[in-house]
Queue: 4 jobs
Job 1
Amino acid sequence: MLTAILNHENIPSSPIILSTRHNGRANEIYPLISRFNYVICKADIDGAQYFLDASQPRLGFGYLPEYCYNGSARIIGKEVRPPVYFEADSLKEQKLTSVFIVNDEKQQGTITGSLKSDMGYFESYELRENLGKKTEKEFFKEIKSPYSADLDIENGAIDSLKQPDYPVSMRYDFTLKNLFADDIVYFNPMMSEGYKENPFKAAERTYPVEMPYTTDETYILNMEIPNGYTVDELPKSVKVAFNETEGFFEYIIAKDDNNVQLRSRVKLKRANFSPDDYGTLRDFFAFIVKKQSEQIVFKKKK
């Protein structure tokens, strides 16, 4: 219907059939109509091609769901045309999360801070889908759930939620009460961010790994050292490469007399991996999970 409407308005358009990820890849050399299960639209506007999916109302213009990126697809028209390709390796998903923590001068043992997360497009799309089923109040309540009852969240806000052409930016202020009361306090500088478990649990795999998109996630922390405490132990800084040039993980942490700074970044330049890469990929994420779970040890001054 979208294709017909656009052609009626003198915008050259054609339907494209493809096979989504859960349906498996269509054979490029010997395509069978039974192997295709999804239709999108190609529109030619001012010399540029745009791929559109009218069935997903929360998608921005020119975007497709990530499950459409599954190899070759076919343009349907009066003439036979070469296939077009939608590869997950072409999707660049970036995310930046910044956390700032300071001492609460009014309440001993309490720290306050703010978190801001500039999400990638597809994470933004998933958030829009989720918030179509729940309220923002419920969303921020779920953020609080991994913490103890001593954490309060205020001033939660989500920008560009109803602007599907743009990624979402989420932010909130928080207060951690009664955390710094003991002589020794363990604190994870990743807060609720980072990888909690390895997404690759099986020891072996005989099929390729197909991620939805490439990954570039950065987490930055600036934390004021709590009043009355010193840093007794700090995780070590590391940087490891994945397959030399195909990605990396860095965890750079430092301190001075008053502050602790952390920068953690996970970047993968590929989304699809052969079974031969599985062991390396699994070990890579196991290292990330272990490193991001390490804690700063604060010790009360004598």
Note: The first strand starts at residue 13 and ends at 18.
Job 2
Amino acid sequence: MIQSMTGFGRSEIMDGERKFLVEIKGVNHRYLDINIRMPRQLNFLETNVRNLLKERLQRGKVDLYISYEDLSEDKGALRYNEALAGEYLDYLKKIGETFHLEDDIRVSTLSRYPEVITMEDTEIDEEEVWNGLKKALDQALDQFIQSRISEGENLRSDILGKLDEMIRDVDYIKEREPQVVEEYREKLRAKVGELLEDDQIDESRLAAEVVLYADKICTDEEVVRLTSHIEHMKETLKSDGEGIGRKLDFITQEMNREANTILSKANDLATSDAGIDLKTGIEKIREQIQNIE
């Protein structure tokens, strides 16, 4: 199934007294590039989060945003550092003795010194937090992937339409070639007759010249190969394999090579126009393929 690399997914869930909000957005990229923004207290889960995304995504620049709230009442506890308070007190007494200052130390004053009394978070149950976060991640990823699939279907339809247009251009070039050769024959006949001022033209010499010209502008091989590439791309677009974007990109390069050769051999305006249309169509397809996973 074709997926675009552009998409968005969002999930917000309550798991017990924990609230998780996950947002995922993605754009096209040659490889899988994951950027994660999450609260510091969840950093221990970053490897789990990254591995989960790698299991479900192949390519794209993916930005993941996670917010987390613990709504329980016992999420913090006071801690008293008695040893540190004792050190502060000893130094304060020495300062008073050294500089003959009044000893006015109060409990309220000492308690405000750094690290004497601190608020510490209660220990996080890592397994429970991961289970809750994974639920939110899975929901957001499901939505994200579904949006990529929907966009992928739009890309598939658009590319198939452009391939049909290319087939029409290829068929026109194929049908046009005999007409171009015949037109060249008549122009050559008229030119030779004008130069010789005589209706007696060596038909064998004329035929040989026309054969050389026909061989020079012949695009039969290029047309066959280009048609094959177009059909191959259609089949690939209908397949469900992985890495479709890279396969399509390779096919596009091959199509472009054949179109360049056809255009270089074109020797009349109509064929040149059709060749330019082919090149334009291939470029449009290439731009669309850049967004396919």
Note: The mean pLDDT is 85.
Job 3
Amino acid sequence: MDDRTTLEKQHDRLTRRKAIVGVAVALGGLALATTGVQAEAEEEISHTAEAIHQETSYKASRKRVYEALTDTKQFDKFTQSNGMNSTALGNKPTEISREAGGAFTLFGGHIIGRQVELMPNERIVQAWRVVDWPPGVYSIAKFELTEQGSGTKIVFDHTGFPKGLAEHLAAGWRSHYWEPLEKFLA
């Protein structure tokens, strides 16, 4: 990272700011709709948007689950345990920033985004996108990690993706995340 040019560093900072501002604007819009401007805002709210809600449990601590989802080497290991090569959909190496605002690149560069919020062992919120989506389109992927006995339950919500992709994305989360993560943590 030290040999990157100043221009590349400025581009990364700008991209990070845009992602954070975009999420803040989206969240601000939600807050606006609930603060007394209800009648006017009602016309601006889609009641047909698609969303994914999945819950899955693992026989591992929240720390171990969090690390598997946020550590580059562990993420590669668990995705490869399902026979999926980390670069199967592209040629870029997996990179996962462990800082809010930092970038991530998964599955050979097919999935990219920014870490919006990282609360170690509790929550991961990402501005998440597939590279072939229209430019500037980011969804929000939220992983809530809660204790469940001696294990961990992930409550996962994915919103803001292009219409018509819910079924495909839901299947992808199961086959590329939850199933291989279960094998990895066993």
Note: Residues 18 and 24 are 10 Å apart (CA to CA).
Job 4
Amino acid sequence: MLKWQAGTVLWSPAFGFHYSDANWETGPGPVAHFIAIKKPGYPATVVGTALDPLRVDPKDFTLVLENSQVRVLRLKLGPRQSAPMHEYSLGHLMVCITDQNVRTTSSDGKAAVAQQKVGDFKWSGPSQQKVDNLTDKPLETAIVELKTIY
């Protein structure tokens, strides 16, 4: 039986027929998220603009994994902390590792407040945003950027 720890990010390159007959045990709480990428990475995809999260806020954003198909970042903010304006130049999936109450402000100044639970996820295209943690608890999010043509 495979056991996963909360917040774990793993990569398994698929080729040919890919399946698992394992019994997954995640314990209480959310289930694991699996992302199936069926196309190879696009070699001309450029990651790393001037507002790249790893450049503008290397204290709070960390690189978890990068290969030809994805780049996975982790954002950790303390209570009432903010991440400055940053940019995702690729389509990306945001997965909540903690419960969240955040305000995001776009580059044109539009702000929105959203609450998410552990395990919630959201797809977004390229975007620029500032993020404010509105709670007295730490915030943690995984961001999976896709380097594929879809």
Note: The longest helix spans residues 53-56.
